[in-house]
Write a structure and sequence with these properties.
436 residues, mainly alpha, Growth Hormone, Chain: A, 76% helix, globular
Length: 436
């Protein structure tokens, strides 16, 4: 049975304030601590990396805890309600720090924020996967969440500019902190009160090492690998976007409008991908969206100084695939939970904890791969760059992501847990071997 529209909205609502809270961590926070609080750039980078590594540890642990708690407690609600205040306290301390704040302050409150983030988001994503057993309804639930995420992202990008704070990180962080502090508790309250918790009982095996899950659930491993490859492919342009616009296009004033165009295109394109996913298999539609993004991005290395209109078109065309990238893999992950159940396993929190960890791993790998390569090419931000260095920047920004997306497409095109497997499983005809 399809979820009521109000339940879809109630489930997706927290995605918006979470995006408002999350985007500044990448866009405003590092520069603010370097330029206005005087913390060294290398030290800020090291602190944020350490916090991210902590986050990758807490995600699977919170997922395992979510599975271990008795279902009768409403464990998704319990963890999210506990995590919300932790997240907001950490966020406020980071975004509105005292004048004396330094690296220690940044590290402490980053750890607090990321702990709260895990406590909220891991149960939140798991909850969405458990709300329906219907193959298509899972896509709608995932899409509902991601529509709100994109709306929150656009808000976080546009609001400081509309208020005249685009170049003032301190004021922008304060405004976005207030928005998150007001909106997130309200959104969580709606979700906790209006969305049913369908989590089931837990067993002793839930505390097995996460790596056992990766070794024995082959569809999950395949999907996770494709997701990481595609995540790195998306993380590379995210890491290099500002540098590409500044040094190749020589149009730094276009940074904000180009980002807005990309995310707005993602929101507009999502209904199309959802319609296609009702006609075809989710994994095929996701593969097609990656092919579309790759075809759009192939033109990036051909651009040069002043080609902002052409790049705007590339942002719009590639942005159309963003909705599929955000909604369909998570919906496929919900289907993979059925494969676990077919083998007598019940550990959705742990699987989604590993999934959340993979998101951070992809972003970390993207920066860890591309920044050293860019430095080895001779690219510099404090001096004029040679044509070879700018070409390297354009190739790393435009072509390396395409190669990674092609590899991810190869993994998911024949993904075994599709509509027919799902129908067979819910008809009590499936066995684990059917999706190997």
């Amino acid at each position: 049975m399809k979820a009521a529209r109000t339940r879809l909205l109630a489930y997706g609502l927290p995605g918006a304030p979470l995006a408002v809270a999350g985007l500044p961590l990448y866009v405003y926070l590092p520069g603010f601590y370097v330029e206005q609080l005087g913390v060294g750039a290398a030290l800020v980078g090291a602190v944020l990396l350490a916090a991210r590594l902590w986050d990758m540890v807490t995600d699977p642990l919170v997922g395992a805890l979510a599975d271990r708690l008795p279902a009768g407690l409403g464990r998704r609600r319990l963890l999210m309600a506990a995590g919300g205040p932790v997240l907001l306290v950490g966020l406020w301390q980071l975004f509105v720090p005292p004048a004396s704040a330094g690296a220690g302050h940044l590290l402490l409150w980053s750890l607090v924020l990321y702990l709260g983030w895990s406590l909220v988001t891991v149960p939140y994503y798991t909850w969405g996967a458990e709300l329906s057993d219907d193959y298509h309804e899972r896509t709608r639930l995932s899409a509902s969440r991601e529509i709100f995420v994109m709306a929150g992202t656009v808000c976080a990008l546009a609001l400081p500019t509309l208020l005249g704070m685009g170049g003032e990180p301190k004021q922008a962080l304060r405004v976005l902190a207030w928005v998150a502090v007001i909106a997130l508790p309200a959104a969580l309250a709606v979700t906790l009160l209006r969305v049913p918790d369908r989590s089931t009982g837990a067993g002793a095996r839930l505390w097995n090492a996460p790596w056992r899950t990766l070794a024995t659930n082959r569809p999950f491993l395949r999907l996770l690998t494709a997701f990481v490859l595609n995540g790195i492919a998306n993380g590379l342009p995210a890491t290099l976007f500002v540098l590409y616009v500044h040094y190749v296009l020589e149009a730094p004033e276009w940074t904000g409008p180009l980002l807005l165009a990309y995310f707005l295109a993602g929101a507009l394109g999502l209904p199309l991908w959802l319609r296609l996913a009702r006609r075809w298999e989710k994994h095929r539609v996701w593969a097609l969206s990656m092919a579309w993004a790759s075809a759009s991005f192939l033109w990036v290395p051909a651009l040069g100084s002043g080609d902002t209109t052409a790049f705007l078109m590339i942002c719009v065309l590639s942005g159309l695939s963003l909705g599929a990238d955000m909604a369909l893999p998570a919906a496929m992950q919900a289907d993979v939970l059925d494969y676990d159940r077919a083998r007598g396993e019940e550990r959705p929190g742990l699987l989604f904890g590993l999934w959340a960890m993979a998101v951070k791993l992809a972003l970390a790998l993207a920066a860890g791969i591309v920044l050293p390569l860019l430095e080895w090419s001779g690219f510099r931000t404090d001096a004029a760059n040679s044509g070879a260095a700018l070409t390297a920047l354009a190739l790393l920004y435009g072509l390396l992501p395409v190669a990674l997306k092609l590899a991810a497409m190869g993994l998911v095109w024949r993904f075994p847990v599709g509509r027919r497997w799902h129908q067979a499983f819910h008809g009590d005809q499936a066995s684990p071997s059917t999706a190997g």
